[in-house]
């Protein structure tokens, strides 16, 4: 850590001395909690820029925001967003992020949550309150107001395949009227989402939007082969990192402070190597295979008598309160193999950015067909981290094998290759740095918020055009 400024220096800076730097670090820590786009990126975005919230700022400010955004043509448009649920999972948060981007340019945005628990839910309450504070209107999923809004809307966005269950029970006779202005945003890769009851209306909507080419191809073949229906015009839109997350990733002082804080909390030294997997703990995310590979890598290092820094594995996304059988098995594996001093479990947290600042390598080990996109991957690359990922799903469209990271097969056959890749990066510091730099360059080139806004804007223009043409015909 740098020495604090002297009192004379602080006075010369008009009081902007140690107290100023402490305040700045606290703000950065707060920003890190809020700017983790994979879980709650919209929280900070709402706190920092809210030009058209429920209080109503000037028309001039809204017009200026619209003029400077690729989504500016959406000003004054009525957009209905239908989410299958409201939670801290990727799909709803992405839709909420879009809601705020649209509000920023002056769109009228209405939100409906189709599947809502009747019990009091602090998360749902907080997210709804956040939307209301931004001027997003929240309606009940059923009732005449929902029907009227869908009929009046310029655009309706269904979020995830499961949201299709909202159409017929609610709109009933009005479904054909609304279908021509629906954009269906799909994030799922799992087979159990391919049910006709969810997606039977899919061929008749204006278009579908999917987060990766791999997922789009999978949906195209699966719907045709299994469900005997055709996909509508399908647009692939890669996601992007928020400006707030990039600000933290590019601030060397903030990264150093966060790195020291997290490593101290884990009991890890500054010179040790941290390999982390950051996902909710579940079999589909592959934490078990990651730990097997990590254990194998320790054995390889010992057998080959390699000189590498002390290595640690961090599993961020734990939830022992749930007492799942899978998580119990993970912890038993660690104890059984005597690596409890090298493996650290961290509970689910909104504060992903501090862990990205603290680690040296991200492991994206999602199994089966992989991630539809995997936003944590581009967030890690923003922090100049190399990525060890499964050669499946959207990861193959983000990570350049051998350049920004290394890919390994999904499944048990990927354990040994992943172990060897761990050893490779542990043994070659210069390769870690080079891959991290190339990953950062790739993010700046194609995975920024303005890239995502531009791609979504192009899709919305097409869908609105088709909707107008169908309504006139």
From TrEMBL:
Gene Ontology molecular function terms on file = glycosyltransferase activity
For this protein, the record's InterPro entries field holds: Glyco_trans_1, Glyco_trans_4_5
Superkingdom classification of source: Eukaryota
Glycosyl transferase family domain: which residues?
A: 260-441
Q: Keywords for this entry?
A: Glycosyltransferase, Transferase
The molecule here is called: Glycosyl transferase family 1 domain-containing protein
Q: Which organism is it from?
A: Eragrostis curvula
Upper taxonomic classification of the species?
Eukaryota, Viridiplantae, Streptophyta, Embryophyta, Tracheophyta
